[in-house]
Write a structure and sequence with these properties.
The protein contains no helices and 25 strands. With 196 residues, it is mainly beta.
Length: 196
């Protein structure tokens, strides 16, 4: 695979018999996703919306990841560190209404570091779980809305750095059932993010 750089793209209605229904990116360079919508994609294994494997780092900013499906795990995103040390900066994103038999939101494995700021991760199933095979995963979360709060982050090996500015109440999407994930004026998210 090759370095992935996408800006202002709509990635939708794709199907993969393997990993990464919408996007699959590997180890040949950084993955940069800005102002992208990744929706209605399906993977028969992992990463319904996005699958990142053994990357050299990644940045996601102002992206919407919704209504994707993975049969195994990582309905929204599957992030694998590959046993190395790499990180993903995850700013101003929304992950919601994804489906999986495993983790519906974000699955983080094999020694990756994730920094989450100003984001919404809202799932009905456990929304974020981390596991590895002898490699620690570290997650830092602040100024974000996470369903079930810190209890929505399940970790086996590694650390969760939970900031003081996170919230867990309903984000009040305008009409999520019809894929409208804009926020009502009285959403708890309005006016509570970190200035960029």
């Amino acid at each position: 695979s090759f370095p992935t750089r996408r800006s202002s793209d709509l990635i939708s209605d794709n199907y993969a018999t393997g990993k990464g229904g919408g996007i699959k990116s590997g180890s040949d360079g950084p993955t940069v996703l800005i102002n992208c919508t990744i929706k209605n994609n399906q993977s028969q294994t992992r990463g319904g919306g996005i699958y990142l494997d053994m990357g050299q780092g990644a940045v996601m900013n102002n992206c919407l990841v919704t209504n994707n499906e993975a049969s195994e795990t990582g309905g929204g995103l599957y992030l694998a560190g590959g046993g190395g040390v790499w990180s993903i900066d995850f700013f101003n994103n929304t992950v919601a209404n994804n489906i999986s038999d495993g983790i519906s939101g974000i699955a983080l494995y094999q020694g990756a570091t994730m920094n989450i700021i100003n984001s919404i991760i809202w799932e009905t199933e456990p929304i974020m779980e981390t596991s590895s095979t002898g490699h620690e995963n570290d997650i830092s979360i602040d100024y974000s809305l996470i369903a079930n709060g810190i209890n929505g982050v399940n970790i086996y090996e590694g650390n969760v750095y939970w900031g003081a500015n996170n919230i867990s109440s309903d984000p009040l999407f305008c009409n999520a059932d019809n894929s409208d994930f804009t926020l009502y004026d009285n959403s708890p998210c309005v006016g509570t993010g970190q200035d960029s």
